């Protein structure tokens, strides 16, 4: 049994930052540790937090709005840092873990001021602004992709590829394999446009489906996430084509829908990419063109290079181009199955465990923990990926 230690997590106010933090918190709590999370009001409204997780709101400040905005942000960050120092002294964490976003900055600065071990986790293939600022100042950097853009040079030794935490329900899909697809069987298409859908998918996908040959059209079933404003038009188009389609603004049973799907068309947020790779589902990605540092385009590079996905720039995402690829993948024998295997080869289903291992490795175990390890000889160390090794 591992002795209890304290860990402080800090994350920005979006699902992309909060959900990996929740996953790590749950794993650390399951290992017997006490965990607290710092975010802003927006972040703590995102569902999914473990019941035992302690939460704190600290001022952070967002750097925007010209000189006046910069001054306000600096003052907020300074205030947040002072409060985070007090929190660290009271909570006494063995390490502080930042997940990006401005709300993570005060806690990471406070960790440095108090000489508390710290690390950052980057969900995207481009290091975000806060993580770039802190990369040289932390003890470890956890990343989700082989090729990370905007990572400062000279940090290879403290950079570890752990991946993005993925829900257990998604990982279970991987073990079930790709659903059978006989030549005359139903082809199941899942369209996911991010948390609020994407109008470009509502416009292009039904138009592309209309261009498919009749024999393929008759085999098609679609589940599509749409913006509320687009749903009726999309439903009407599929009904006109005679295609069985289920359209909704939010896919609440996403793991079940993903298990059902043969092909996914989606934006390229970090969580979506990680889930499709872990589940082993071929995809056609349309990266959001206005994402910070164009990170969605880089998020899909590994999957595309492995042969598990295709990627279209939004300007090239036309009904004709999409119809051509759907037809090719559906009618070329073994194409979808092969792409599924290639996608699965990029999946990192142990990301949550590996991330927790890395966090634990920042904190020397208490003496009694060492004695227990020596007695059992069975506990694994905190090594990551190829660097795994038995505890000394």
Describe the secondary-structure layout.
Elements: E1 6-10, H1 15-30, E2 34-39, H2 41-44, E3 54-57, H3 66-91, E4 95-98, H4 105-113, E5 118-121, H5 129-134, E6 140-143, E7 159-161, H6 168-176, E8 187-192, H7 199-209, H8 214-217, E9 220-225, H9 231-241, E10 244-248, H10 254-260, E11 263-266, H11 270-279, E12 283-285, H12 295-299, H13 301-306, E13 309-311, H14 319-331, H15 335-345, H16 351-361, H17 367-376
Parallel strand pairs: 1-2, 1-4, 2-3, 4-5, 5-6, 6-7, 8-9, 8-11, 9-10, 11-12, 12-13
Helix pairs in contact: 1-16, 3-4, 6-11, 7-9, 7-14, 11-15
Number of strands: 13
* pLDDT averaged over residues: 90
Would you list the SSEs in sequence order as H and E? EHEHEHEHEHEEHEHHEHEHEHEHHEHHHH
Count of helix runs: 17
Which range best describes the helical content: under 10%, 10-25%, 25-40%, 40-55%, 55-70% or over 70%? 40-55%
Q: Based on helices, strands and strand pairing, what is the structural class? A: alpha/beta
Features:
single chain; seven-stranded parallel sheet; 43% helix; disordered C terminus; six-stranded parallel sheet; 392 residues; alpha/beta; 17 helices
Descriptive account of the structure:
The protein has helices spanning 15-30, 41-44, 66-91, 105-113, 129-134, 168-176, 199-209, 214-217, 231-241, 254-260, 270-279, 295-299, 301-306, 319-331, 335-345, 351-361, 367-376; strands at 6-10, 34-39, 54-57, 95-98, 118-121, 140-143, 159-161, 187-192, 220-225, 244-248, 263-266, 283-285, 309-311. The chain has 392 residues and is of the alpha/beta class. A 7-stranded parallel sheet has the order 3-2-1-4-5-6-7, sandwiched between helices.
């Amino acid at each position: 049994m591992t002795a209890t230690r304290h860990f402080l997590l800090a994350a920005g106010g979006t699902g992309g930052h909060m959900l990996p933090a929740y996953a790590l918190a749950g794993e650390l709590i399951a290992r017997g540790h006490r965990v607290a999370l710092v975010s802003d009001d927006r972040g703590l409204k995102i569902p999914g937090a473990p019941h035992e997780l302690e939460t704190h709101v600290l001022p952070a400040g967002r750097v925007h709005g010209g000189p006046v905005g910069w001054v306000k942000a600096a003052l907020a960050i300074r205030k947040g840092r002072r409060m985070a120092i007090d929190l660290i002294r009271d909570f006494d964490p063995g390490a502080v873990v930042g997940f990006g976003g401005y709300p993570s900055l005060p806690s990471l600065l406070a960790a440095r001021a108090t000489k508390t071990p710290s690390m950052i986790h980057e969900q995207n293939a481009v290091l975000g602004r806060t993580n770039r600022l802190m990369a040289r100042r932390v003890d470890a950097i956890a990343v989700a992709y082989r090729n990370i853009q905007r990572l400062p040079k000279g940090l290879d030794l403290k950079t570890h590829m752990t991946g993005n935490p993925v829900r257990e329900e998604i990982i279970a899909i991987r073990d079930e394999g790709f659903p059978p697809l006989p030549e005359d069987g139903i082809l199941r298409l899942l369209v996911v446009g991010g948390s609020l859908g994407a109008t470009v998918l509502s416009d292009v996908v039904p138009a592309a489906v209309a261009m498919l040959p009749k024999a393929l059209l008759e085999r098609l079933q679609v589940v599509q996430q749409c913006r509320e404003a687009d749903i009726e038009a999309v439903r009407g188009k599929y009904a006109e084509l005679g295609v069985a389609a289920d359209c909704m603004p939010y896919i609440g049973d996403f793991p079940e829908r993903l298990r059902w799907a043969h092909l996914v068309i989606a934006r390229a947020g970090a969580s979506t990419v990680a889930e499709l790779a872990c589940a082993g589902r071929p995809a056609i990605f349309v990266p959001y063109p206005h994402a910070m540092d164009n990170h969605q385009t880089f998020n899909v590079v590994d999957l595309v290079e492995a042969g598990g996905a295709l990627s279209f720039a939004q300007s090239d995402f036309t009904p004709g181009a999409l119809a051509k690829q759907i037809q090719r993948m559906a009618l070329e024998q073994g194409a979808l199955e092969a792409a599924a295997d290639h996608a699965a080869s990029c999946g990192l289903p142990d990301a949550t465990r590996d991330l927790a291992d890395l966090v634990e490795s920042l904190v020397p175990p208490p003496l009694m923990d060492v004695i227990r390890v020596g007695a059992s000889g069975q506990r694994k160390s905190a090594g990551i990926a190829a660097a795994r090794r038995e505890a000394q």
